[in-house]
Design goal:
Blueprint: H1 12-22, E1 32-36, E2 40-45, E3 49-54, H2 60-74, E4 86-88, E5 98-102, E6 107-108, H3 116-133, H4 136-142, H5 158-174, H6 184-191, E7 212-213, H7 220-227, E8 233-236, E9 251-255, E10 271-274, H8 288-292, E11 299-303, H9 315-323, E12 329-333, E13 348-351, H10 356-359, E14 365-368, H11 372-380, E15 385-387, H12 394-404, E16 407-409, H13 417-429, H14 431-445, H15 450-461
Parallel strand pairs: 8-9, 9-10, 11-12, 11-14, 12-13, 14-15, 15-16
Antiparallel strand pairs: 1-2, 2-3, 3-5, 4-5, 6-7
Helix pairs in contact: 9-13, 11-14
Length: 464
């Protein structure tokens, strides 16, 4: 329908120009289209930022409201929402404001292939979200002056909705679409509905494509604990995204050095940094096959974790192609049957799983997907890395490695044997990478250990 046509086409050339002009700190060359709707286009930058650009002027009030209230709203909700970090201004290139927020990971609920029990759990999580959104306290916190418009799209005005639906159905019939069921009874029932009796904050366009499902539901326990007012501790590979800061209310045990936190992240007052215990217990037995690798070559370990990342098409094959002709000894942990990768030359050993405690202390460099545990184990030993990120927090971790100078990143769009080979050569020949990795490890070694963390947890448990 013409009323839905875009008034401004958001193409790659425009996105790159706008980002280069207004946010030079963001790599504009990394732009890729995530999706387009009737009102907005969303482009991903650096695999960590989602920039939203209105396509029609009618979308501007919604964008402006989101800019105004989402930072306050995010701290009150049990699930993450986009929180703007970059706010673009109108210019000669583009007439409207736009914004960039941390990219929320996940798949659209319609595409997630959820089993029935997973749908039930999703419904519960969505219900908790809507209950928090619709709470009177939420309205008083995010809009104390009652400046938000009251039903600007007339969604609760059943007379208006019936008229609009009738007009659209008539237009569809005019172009040959057959109406299979008489909508009259539905329209009549809608007109008999009582008007709303309360004012609350609502999602203006809640449908299935606006719900993302993410397998990493590690905050579920803290949400449940908060609901029944039990003090809770969040620990491990924490990512202090602005939209999650409200989840760290009592104690956040961050297994990382302080400098691992990115400048755009928000540290809660409850954070306690603790050191990683590295690759595991010292003195683990060395597997016999390790001694069979050429001893006159530097040892490089390739590990992509143990999750679904190991099934990423071409990930291991591309990495092996990068290293096959290099003067290295290579140990690969594939997470799957080694035979799936075929025969390898004598200097490359593929195993399903590898003990980091036995292998990492002997490594000059590591090629990894960028999982938090692997990276912290490498830095504890002063090992530089090449990160080949796939999903979840891995793009963010890759960006931190580059920013801190402890490794190189090869993002999905650049994932070729040549790119991986060049990155590995750089981190192995430029001693500054290893020196900075050692410095990061020394920073971490000076932090309290798990004993101190246990004491902090006990303090939380003793609170009234």
């Amino acid at each position: 329908m013409p009323e839905w046509d875009a008034e401004v086409e958001i193409d790659e050339t425009l996105v790159r120009a706008l980002l280069s002009d207004q946010f030079p700190e963001v790599d504009a060359s990394s732009a890729r289209l995530l999706g387009e709707g009737w009102d907005n286009a969303v482009w991903v930058l650096e695999e960590r930022w989602a920039f939203r650009f209105p396509r029609r002027e009618i979308a501007l009030p919604g964008v402006q409201r989101e800019l105004a209230i989402s930072p306050r709203l995010a701290t009150l909700l049990p699930l993450p929402i986009p929180v703007p970090r970059f706010i673009g201004k109108p210019s000669d290139r583009y007439p409207w404001p736009f914004f960039g927020a941390p990219l929320l990971r996940g798949r659209e609920a319609a595409d997630a292939g959820l089993a029935d029990e997973q749908r039930v759990e999703l419904g519960r999580a969505l219900g908790r979200f809507l209950r928090a959104l619709h709470a009177p306290a939420t309205l008083s916190r995010v809009d104390p002056g009652l400046e938000l418009p009251l039903d600007p799209n007339r969604r609760t005005d059943m007379r208006a909705r019936v008229d609009i639906a009738g007009t659209w159905l008539a237009e569809l019939e005019n172009v040959g679409w057959q109406i299979r069921r008489d909508p009259g009874p539905l329209f009549e029932a809608a007109l008999e509905l009582d008007p709303p009796v309360a004012e609350v904050v609502v999602h203006g366009d809640l449908h299935l494509r606006h719900v993302l499902v993410h397998e990493g539901a590690e905050l579920g326990a803290s949400i449940a604990a908060a609901r029944i007012e039990i003090p809770h501790v969040t620990a491990g590979a924490l990512w202090f995204r602005p939209d999650l800061v409200g989840q760290f209310r009592h104690l956040a045990l961050a297994v990382m050095p302080r400098s691992w936190v990115a400048p755009d992240e928000v540290l809660p007052a409850t954070v306690m940094f603790i050191r990683s215990e590295g690759a595991g217990p010292a003195g683990e037995p060395v597997p016999p096959w390790l001694a069979e690798l050429p001893s006159d070559r530097p040892l490089v370990h390739v590990t992509m974790g143990t999750t679904e990342v190991t099934r990423t098409p071409g990930l291991y094959e591309t990495t092996l192609a990068a290293l096959r002709d290099e003067p290295l000894s290579v140990v690969v942990a594939s997470g799957n049957d080694p035979a799936e990768l075929g025969p390898q030359p004598d200097h490359i050993r593929v195993e399903r799983f590898v003990s980091h405690g036995a292998v990492l202390p002997r490594c000059r460099a590591v090629v990894t997907h960028g999982g938090h545990g692997t990276l912290m184990a490498c830095f504890a030993l002063g090992i530089p890395v090449v990160v080949v990120p796939v999903n979840a927090d891995q793009p963010r971790n890759a960006a931190r490695c580059e920013a801190l100078g402890v490794g190189r990143s090869v993002p999905p769009a650049s994932r070729t044997p040549e790119a991986i080979r060049d990155a590995l050569r750089e981190v192995m020949t430029d001693d500054r990478y290893a020196a900075r990795a050692r410095a990061l490890g020394e920073e971490m070694a000076a932090l309290p250990g798990y004993d101190a963390a246990v004491g902090a947890i006990e303090d939380v448990a003793r609170r009234p």
